[in-house]
Amino acid sequence: MVLPAVERHTRLLVGDLQGGILLEQASDFVQAQVQDASVHAAGGLEVLLALLLAISGLAFLAPARVAYGLGRMWHASIFALMAGLLPLYHACDDKLSAAFGLASLPGSFRTSLRLADHGCVYFCILQLGFLALGPEDPIFQWMGESKITRENMEVLSSSPPWDIVLLIRVVPAVAMIVFLSSCPPWEDFHWQAVVLLDVLWLLGLALFWLHPKRSKNASKVLVRMGYWLRLWKHAVLPLSVLMFLLVGFTANGSKALHASWHFVLAYMAVSVVRTVISQSSADALRESQRLEECQGSSPAWNPVVASKLLFGAGLVGVPTLVASAIMNFHSLHSWTWPLLSMPMMTRPGGYLVVLGALPALAALGAAFWLIGSSGPCPAFGERDAGEDIPVSKKMGVMLGYLSVAFGLACVASGGFLPRLHCCCLLSFFVFMVMAMAMTAASTLRTSLSQDRTCLYVATAASCTVTLSFVVLFVLSSQYIQNSYYIPQPILAMSEYLSTVSILLWPLCWSSEVHVGWQAHKAWRMSPPSQMA
Q1: CA proximity to 262, closest of 90, 77, 76
Q2: What is the model's pLDDT at position 279?
Q3: pLDDT, tens digit (0-9, with 9 covering 90-100), for 400-425
Q4: What CA–CA distance (Å, rounded) separates 152 from 300?
Q5: Residue 378 above 50 pLDDT?
Q6: What pLDDT, on the 0 to 100 scale, is given for residue 15?
Q7: Minimal CB count within 10 Å: which of 205, 263, 302, 489?
Q8: Burial of 68 (0-12, 13-18, 19+ CB in 10 A)
Q9: Rounded mean pLDDT of the chain?
Q10: Number of alpha carbons in the 13 Å side-chain half-sphere of residue 129
Q11: DSSP letter string over 353-418?
């Protein structure tokens, strides 16, 4: 009687065990199906994003059409090339090719296509920068030419001068091809490309405005509010958004951010082309108003901002120092007191130092020009008999130019020629001390005021801090054999203080530059020449 009960109990246990196994198998099957569905959904989303990224390149057909309608064949061809090249490159994505049953391209061909894609994008940004800066603006191109007196639309539809074709189009194109042919390391590609753009923009802007037929009218444009507002609206802000998106999709590989980057760049291109170039003959009145704004015929709403330009060096340089320090700390996870004078030893913060140093030095050179012209304005006729600039100021300004030239040479030689780099660095600081001292000494014959006191104190402090860094740098580098040990924090702090003091020193001349440019008789008696 006991055995049947045990047997029945055993059968129940076996049945429960088999049911549990079946349930577990069913659960595993469901989980596998869910995982497969998730994988397929994720794969489908990746394919859709890759397809969106490929299609986003066609957005450059919009600026190509606008540029073609305005007669700008050069820019229309650049945008049309991008509209064909970008979709072709992104259509070669492995997942997108597999989804459509296409064979993958060879690795060497994809690498070449990748370099062509990125080079074309950076060249497009370079040309948009030239449009905003002025070298590709047809109104500025013909300043001082007889053609500028003809009808407005004839000027806008005319071909650019030969120097523009050579310096703004041919030379940058050759430089970009050489850069791409050098096959730079991919981890440094974007940094080096942006540095190249920085150099080409500065060279193009300097050569454009220093042209003999445009230099005499450059001050009528560059010291007015309208030019800098246009530059802020159509260059600085859009480029900031582009760099933010570039960092975003480079860091996490987001195809959605990459596609949005294409749309933002295409919108920026349409905006810049339409702003710089008149859309039709019906816009002649609006264009003449823009000419008056650029040339200063309406000073009430386009005032002289010469004194505000003295903020340029500090406005570019100081944030660059802070950002590079933060980037170095983030990449190394510790504070190592990096030297700004040795940017190639601290990457990627060193690239940021180079990017900021170039425009900061250019702004410092412009500040010395404004200081040198703070009495009478050299761009407008002859000086009065009593308006001679002191010899010490002239020499100080020339030494300032020489110091800036050594600074640019220091940036160019960093990482390649260490000895030349250090020599140019020391020359930059020494000549800068001499320039600051001599320009400040030129005001000793004037009556002492609060502004003069501020100038003397700031000059003495800047010269002291800068010379201290020079001495510490020479001792630490063992250019003179010695047994002194200079701690890295002390050397770095002296370098930071000397750099910041030099960048902010031009602000002490703000009052004199403002009075000199506002009160000079040329602004009151000589109306700006009309170009249309």
Answers
A1: 90
A2: 41
A3: 999 999 999 988 887 677 788 888 99
A4: 24
A5: no
A6: 53
A7: 489
A8: middle
A9: 76
A10: 24
A11: HHHHHHHHHHHHHHHHHHHHTSSS-TTSSPPPGGGPPPHHHHHHHHHHHHHHHHHHHHHHHTTT-H
